[in-house]
Amino acid sequence: MSGHSRWAGIKHKKGALDAKRGKVFTRIVRELSIAAKTGGGVPENNPRLRKAIDDAKAANMPGDNVKKAIQRGTGELPGITYEEVSYEGYGPGGASVILTGTTDNKNRTISEIRKIFTSHGGNLGESGCVAWMFQTKGLIRVEKEMWTDEETLMTVALDAGAEDIKSDDDAVFEVLIAPAHFEKVKAAVEAAKIPMAQAEVTMLPSSVVSLSGGPATQMEALLEDLENHDDVKDVFTNGEFSGE
User: Fold this and answer.
1) Alpha carbon distance 217, 213 (integer Å)
2) What is the mean pLDDT of each run of 10 residues along the chain (244 residues)?
3) Annotation: CATH topology of 2-7+134-205
């Protein structure tokens, strides 16, 4: 067990607007199609597709919608072709931002994303300008109020291939995993009936930029507008909000 975790709250979670069913369905449909396009339409052989199907079930998406989205991805049905995109830039106060998404028109999307950055005191950068500050990691979070047996969690996770386990002061355990081992560790934690508050492959920064006052307010607005854009799937930042 290594020291205090800095990662809780690093990834700015989607806000209330993202709970609107139509927007959630749109993002899941795109993810289903791309997952099927890149890895095939058989969930047993495609971890990304399995995750997308799980998300669809959690959102109560009708099974017919799921089936059609997968078939469009595999080419069995005609439909819009989506591409994956990622953008990097800087927000107020010098915090770094990476976002991923899907689009059927790259020129339109990049123009709209650039406008969002500019309108909130940030700027869209070149590919690679901030990616070096982040590592792709599997992350499992276990809330201590739901699970207090630290020793069992460590044994299960580390034996399955986890890299490290960090402990927030009193709220959560965080299991860090190389992406290649994420599914195996997740399955082991599930088999041990350890409740997971979060389980995903995410991007973690090597350092953080503390934001407060005006820059923090601007950054919150930037992140919210980015996350509410239809083409955006995930937003990551090394901005850490301090103060009120």
Assistant:
1) 6
2) 43 50 84 93 92 90 94 89 93 93 94 97 94 94 92 95 86 93 94 93 91 92 92 92 66
3) Alpha-Beta Plaits (3.30.70)
Q: pTM to 2 decimals? A: 0.78
Pick the CATH number of 83-132+207-241 from 3.40.630.30, 3.30.70.980, 1.20.120.450, 3.40.50.620: 3.30.70.980
Q: Which residues, in sequence order, are bridge partners of residue 175?
A: 140, 165
Looking at domain 16-74, what is its CATH homologous superfamily? Integrase, N-terminal zinc-binding domain (1.10.10.200)
Q: Are 239 and 139 in contact (CB under 8 A)?
A: no
Q: Where are the beta strands (DSSP E) in the chain?
A: 2-4, 83-90, 96-103, 123-124, 134-143, 164-167, 172-177, 198-205, 209-211, 232-237, 239-241
pLDDT, tens digit, 9 for 90 and up, residues 204-219? 999 999 999 999 999 9
Give the SS3 label for residue 31.
helix
176 vs 204: CA distance, rounded Å: 10
